[in-house]
Every structure is written in structure tokens, then in C-alpha cells.
Amino acid sequence: WAATNYFLVSLAVADIAVGLFAIPFAIVISIGLPTDFHGCLFLVSFVLVQTQSSIFSLLAVAIDRYLAIKVHLRYKGLVTGRRAKLIIAVFWILSFVIGLIPLFGWSGSKECLNKTNPVTPTDNGSCQVQCLFLNVIDMGYMVYFNFFGCVLTPLIIMLVIYLKIFTVVRKQLRQIEHSSINSDTP
Question: Pairing mode, if any, of strands 120-121 and 34-36?
Fold first, then answer.
């Protein structure tokens, strides 16, 4: 099996998970049902894990395609099935770590601790919230860490990679065109 197929399967699994789980969970979150703080936080974190895995899978495909074009003679020795599986495993583990960080404390739990609106403390010590993204996620985490570090950075890397792929392909097409013009002349 070619290494590229592993990356494509990882992307397919990530995108199917986004469609089956992340989008329905995001819809539930957008409704704002009253729920336990940590239950809502789990749903939000699960959405973050799934979307991050999709982003990292796209990045892996972009890097794979770049290497296939840039170092095509060494590609098969460089990008083996074993290495592809290792890269995929690292990206999925990173997706879980990044997405689950709010569950380990970097969340909007200060509202729960301060018992401010829209939070309602209950008798059993849990905290009821209107399950909305902004009520459970810390914006510092979301903006600076997640968006700038974990979403925008991979997207910029992908943009650079695809621009490089474009320039390499354009250069190769010009060489082919130039050689075909030279071979047509007697």
C-alpha cells in the first residue's frame, strides 16, 4: 500500500468523524440547552479534537504531495508506510491533546467557580450552564492557542506548500513545453 493512501484514509476518517459527530455536536452546542458545565465542555472539546484531526490530516496530505513532487526520485524510500503511520499517529495524538486541553482546566470554568450568569449552581456541586461555546471555552485558549497556533499556522504552512507545488509543476510544464518545441524543429 502506498504511503499516500494512509494519509488519504486518515483524512477520510477525520472528515467522516467531523460529519458524523462534530457537526451534530456543534448544532447541539449552538442551541444552548441547559446542561452540566463539564458535559458541555466535553462536547465542545470533542468538536475541537475532530476539527483539529481534519486540519492535521490535510497538512499531512499537503506535505506528502510536496515531497512526492519535490524529491520524486527519493520519495518511496523517504515516505514509507511505516513512517506515514507514525506521522498519522502523532497528528491524531496531537489532535486529542489540543482538543482536550480545556477538559484539563484551560476552560471557561471561572464562571462556574464565581457562579455568575448564565451559570446556575446546583445542590450536588455541579454547575449548570446554557451549553454555548462561549460559556465553556476560554477565549485565550480559543484565539491565541487554538486559532493562531493550531489552525492558522497549519493553514499557512499548507498555503506555502501548495504555492511551492504550483511553482514546481509550472516549471516542469515549461520544461516539457520547451523540450517538445525543440524536438519539433528539424
Answer: unpaired
pTM: 0.85
Helices (H), the chain: 3-17, 23-31, 37-70, 75-78, 81-100, 110-114, 133-136, 139-140, 153-184
Quote the CA–CA distance of 182 and 6 in Å, as a whole number. Answer: 41
- Class level of CATH domain 3-184: mainly alpha
Distance of CA 181 to the CA centre of its chain: 45
Going from N- to C-terminal start, the domains of the chain cover 3-184
pLDDT of residue 114: 53
83: confidence class by pLDDT, cuts 50, 70, 90 = very high
Residue with C-alpha cell 511505516? 82
